[in-house]
Write a structure and sequence with these properties.
Radius of gyration: 20 Å
Largest sheet: 7 strands, mixed
Number of domains: 2
Number of helices: 9
Shape: globular
Number of strands: 15
Strand content: 25-35%
Length: 350
């Protein structure tokens, strides 16, 4: 039995909260919330479950006092990228393992100033920090690297994601931070703070892939682009005028010291049809591995209920990855969690 605190209760956090409440081997010890209206509310009410007797708090001190085994950390990534590090370090220093969907996939790639306090907190508390998720966290680091085991000779790895943003509700996020509806003649969203934040997040993927392959990143180059609306488009957050940004493609190309090239591409779009995908797919990935032989794979997540919110499948999968990680992280040595040994191919490329 693991005592768990659910940290944050947005759409993903509420799903995780329900899974923890329903899980026979997990005990809900506490809930941390950012919305002051949820403070003091029973976790069951937040999760649409019967009363649990566990009431939400927005005080870090309350969480530390609970002394849980693990915190499921599911806050929204914000600018600056390292803003959340202090609270995570406090949890780790108190001896609490942290499983996060908000980064921390390969902290060491950011250098000692970023990773040092987190690693020191792990050592002080004898705790483990694990960044998990779908992308980043699973597609490239686990699936693509595993598929390279089919190659006698490895030359390149490319991962492409298309994610549907049409049902996102917040205009300030979709049209503000994400840049949808921007006039490319007046605003280059690929050079805005979001690009910096995404770069800091997804560089962890490329460094993790290099590590699994027994190499290191020699060079890393961003290659971002936008897709313009071919017509006026209506999405949940508002209207995208024709000729303005309807999709953003965040792409990074890394050259490894082994000679292997790694390309990672994430496309957020107002209409998956612009990219040959389906609205029913919460997210879709294409993996292409070049070598001897070439390997190609496609992955799509679909909810069994066609009427379900289109992002539910992706949220369910992300939460599943986090919950499945609890026993492994609990058994791991203090420090930064690494990809499990079965997937550490430790091979050369070229």
């Amino acid at each position: 039995m693991y005592r768990v605190v659910q940290w944050a209760t947005g759409s993903m956090g509420r799903t995780a909260l329900r899974r923890v409440i329903d899980h026979p081997q997990l005990e809900l010890a506490g809930v941390y919330v950012y919305d002051p209206r949820k403070v003091g509310v029973d976790a069951g009410e937040i999760a649409r479950r019967p009363p649990t007797g566990v009431r939400a708090t927005n005080r870090l001190e309350d969480v530390l006092a609970l002394q849980p085994d693990v915190v499921l950390h599911m806050s929204r990534i914000t600018l600056p990228y390292e803003k959340q590090n202090a609270e995570v370090a406090a949890l780790l220093a108190a001896g609490i393992d942290v499983i996060s969907t908000a980064g921390f996939h390969y902290p060491a790639c950011h250098g000692l100033a970023y990773a040092g306090p987190l690693l020191e907190a792990c050592k002080r508390g004898g705790s483990t920090l694990a960044g998990v998720g779908l992308n980043p966290g699973f597609i490239a680091e686990h699936v693509a690297t595993l598929l390279t085991g089919l190659c006698a000779q490895l030359e390149s790895i490319a991962c492409y994601e298309v994610a549907d943003a049409s049902s996102m509700p917040a205009p300030e996020f979709v049209f503000g931070l994400m840049g949808f509806g921007a006039d490319p003649a007046q605003r280059d969203v690929t050079r805005e703070p979001l690009a910096t934040m995404y770069g800091e997040l997804f560089m962890e993927v490329l460094h993790a892939v290099a590590d699994v392959l027994g190499s290191r990143v020699a060079s890393l180059t961003p290659e971002h682009a936008v897709t313009l609306a071919p017509r006026e488009m209506s999405i949940r957050a508002g209207t995208i005028p024709q000729g303005t940004v309807a999709a953003t493609q965040w792409r990074w190309r890394a050259r490894l010291e082994s000679g292997v090239e790694v390309l990672h591409s994430v496309t957020w779009t107002a209409d998956p049809a612009l990219h040959g995908a389906s609205h029913r797919e919460a997210a879709a990935w294409r993996i292409e591995i070049g070598g001897r032989p070439n390997v190609k794979a496609t992955i799509a997540l679909e909810d069994p209920d066609p009427a379900a919110p289109h992002m539910r499948a992706a949220v369910d999968a992300t939460v599943a990855v986090a919950l499945h990680a609890i026993p492994t992280v609990a058994a791991a040595p203090p420090g930064f969690f690494a990809v499990p040994g079965a997937l550490q191919l430790r091979r050369g490329g070229g």
